[in-house]
Amino acid sequence: MEMKTEFIELSTRGDTDIIDITERVQSIVSQEGFREGSASVFAIGSTGGITTVEYEPGLVNSDLPRLFDTLAPYGEHYAHHNTWGDDNGSSHVRASLLGCAMTVPFIDGKLLLGTWQQIVFIDFDTRPRKRRISVQLAGIKG
User: Fold this and answer.
1) Distances (CA, A) of 134 to 41, 88, 128, 138
2) pLDDT by residue (tens digit) across 117-131?
């Protein structure tokens, strides 16, 4: 078994910016020549998350942001603000609810995703950010 770690660099808008990274993850698997194994996708930082969704406008522009606004609204007071004097307590709560990583298997060099299933990074911070996501491959090459 071989391993390889690569990174995806993103510029985000913050405020629940949802970015499809499926093709970038697939590209890493393909470029590294892995045939079978798994890709561990990890959001570096405490205000971003990783999941899969059907990346379509209603879900990413309305439904998911509305869900997170209900669960952890921006603009509310969070005890986190007292610690650092910032305004992103909701961002940390949202990210912890979603989670920062997932593992996606691949066979014949192709990610095992459903027809309407894409890997997304969600930036919950309250401002635009430069983000880094690690993609660690473990598997068989060839």
Assistant:
1) 6, 23, 19, 13
2) 999 999 999 999 999
Rounded to whole angstroms, the Cα distance separating 15 from 106 reads 31
Structure tokens at 67: 């869900």
Tell me if the pTM is above 0.70: yes
Which strand ranges, in their side-by-side order, compose the sheet holding 110-111? 2-12, 129-141, 34-43, 101-107, 110-111
> Cα–Cα distances in Å, from 19 out to 33, 88, 117?
25, 20, 13
Please state the domain count of the chain. 1
Domain span including residue 44 = 2-141
Tokens 């993609």, residue? 135
Q: Which CATH number goes with the domain that contains 102?
A: 2.60.120.460
Q: How far is CA 26 from CA 5, 99, 113, in A?
A: 13, 21, 11
* Integer angstrom CA distances of residue 87 from 15, 20, 75: 12, 26, 8
